[in-house]
Amino acid sequence: MALFNLVNKTYKDTVEQSDLYIFGIHADEGLSAAFSEKHPNVSKQISMAMDKGEFKAKLNQAMLMYTPDCETASRYLVLGLGEAEGFTSDHLRQVTATAAQKAHGVKAGSVIVEFMGEDKLEAEESQALVEGLVMGGYRFLEYQKQDDEYAGIQNVTVLSNADLAAELEYGLQVSAGVVLARDLGNHPSNVATPTYLAETAERIAKDGDMKITVFEREDFEKLGFGGIQGVAQGSDVPPKFIILEYNGGGADAKTLGLVGKGLTFDSGGISIKPAGGMDEMKFDMLGGAAVLGIMSAVAQIKPKLNIIAVVPSTENMSGGKAYKPGDILTAYNGKTIEILNTDAEGRLILADGLSYITKHYKLDGLVDFATLTGAVIVALGHRYSAVMTNDQSFADELMDVGEKSQDRLWQLPLDEEYAEDIKSKIADVKNTGAAREAGTIAAGAFLHEFVAEGTPWCHVDIAGTGWLKKGRPYQPEGPTGSGVRLILELIKSWE
User: Which of 74, 242, 245, 354 falls between 20 and 30 A from 161, CA-CA?
Assistant: First the structure.
């Protein structure tokens, strides 16, 4: 997925005229002598603004300047980096996101990016630089008539005396995975159907030389997929059970398992949701979108390990054939489930996904992603995803890469006592826990019942982080792509 053309050049190379020259300065360091020598007119303007206190170089502060006598660009955008001490890769991700938004504001198609002087931009930071540009500049315009033909940023030149080409390209590939996940979430549910997700998976499989298997509604009863079969029976839209297999590491390499909830629209079923905000239930497939975004990046990065991805996908509707409170379903591993609330449907399709992947594959780690519970928003808001686990060392590893990628996790307990909350009197388990108590944990305890013993597993609830009503620098309003950068960072650490 081409987002923009990306070139890494040194300060001695010839650089073509661009629409916008972007650079950053630290509040406690100011302009470097080298920059001032190369850009005297711009430097004078910045010095005057700083002397008057109008530009203090605070983190994400931006100032746009027009310099018609400059050969490099007609506009300069200076961004505050804050204090040099404590400046992180995520700060750089934020300021380049701010830069991308400003670039869109002036309809810049080509930009030059310089940060922190000639020798300070390092490999890890360069990945964050590209991620900020892409994620901050993300726009979803497919269903809007445009008044102009501005196509966004098309060409980016990154100036540094270090050779950062590989890291910059990697950042672009990671960002493309995030963009795909966001796009899938933004499409309406009459477009992003289970069939659409399956077709997306087929394209990914072709690009990445992966094996793909898609089970249909008529396969579910024969195979024993009672969870997704039950949820899907109220909808005329064909459900899909999607499996992608990437074998990039051979028999001796680690194998990672991924499962993503692909609920393309959730009405709540018989236990129908309130009308207000129901349009947002097109986002209930963001776990599946994250998994497909990850696999699309894998197709380009081609890591030397093995990855199995499963996306059970359906709608949850309230037609005459819909499953009902009081029904009992049988999941793929044979466990029976008493249905008390048809709006607790995501865990039912995940039960089949987790059962299937842990029966048929030997995994060194398994992560599932789901917009599963509103309770997680009450607990954590929109900053952290919740993680629950059966293997503390694996959870620690996942939380560590979450801090590195800033796709952050916060662990909730999953003690055996919580399993008592989902015990049923007439089936093996029920699909809700105790009323108004530990709803997110009860969902995790339920999913744990369908993970084969011996598989290190983490459940990640992204209901609070999967989409935002109020955006942040590189996470605009709407789907965020939560989970994509997290897992790609884990994959990098596993290679």
Answer: 74
From 120, 273, 472, 492, the catalytic residue: 273
Q: Say how many CA atoms lie within 13 Å of 137 toward its Cβ.
A: 30
Distances (CA, A) of 250 to 246, 253, 292, 441, 456: 10, 6, 22, 36, 20
Phi and psi, residue 421, nearest 5°: -70, -20
Q: How far apart are CA 112 and CA 76, in angstroms?
A: 9
pTM given for the model: 0.97
Question: String of b and e for 175-214 (b: at least 16 CB within 10 Å)?
Answer: bbbbbbbbbbbbbebeebbbbbbbebbeebbeebebebeb
Token couple for 167: 């890291």
Are 452 and 361 a contacting pair, CB within 8 Å?
no
Alpha-carbon span 352 to 101, nearest angstrom? 42
**pLDDT for position 40:** 86
* DSSP codes joined into one string, 48-67: HHHHTTS----TT-EEEEE-
Q: How many CA atoms lie within 13 A of 396 on its CB side?
A: 3
pLDDT by residue (tens digit) across 34-91? 788 888 888 899 999 999 999 999 999 999 998 766 668 889 999 999 999 999 999 9
At CA 27, angle to CA 25 and CA 28, rounded to 5? 110
Active site residue 139: no
The whole-angstrom separation of Cα 365 and Cα 367 is 7
The residues, any chain, with a CB within 8 Å of residue 150's CB and separated by 6 or more, are: 104, 107, 109
256, 369 contact by CB (below 8 A):
no
Domains of the chain plus CATH, in order, are: 5-163 (3.40.220.10), 176-494 (3.40.630.10)
Q: How many H-runs (helices) and E-runs (strands) does the chain carry?
A: 14, 20
Write the single-letter amino acid at 198.
A
Question: Which candidate in 261, 347, 404, 430 is catalytic?
Answer: 347
Q: Which of 144-152's residues contact partners 24+ apart within 8 Å by CB, and which partners? A: 148/107, 150/104, 150/107, 150/109, 151/109, 152/4, 152/104, 152/109
Confidence of residue 298 (pLDDT cuts 50, 70, 90): very high
d(CA 164, CA 300): 18
DSSP 180: H
Catalytic status, residue 182: no
pLDDT digits (tens, 9 = 90+) for 114-138: 876 556 777 778 999 999 999 999 9
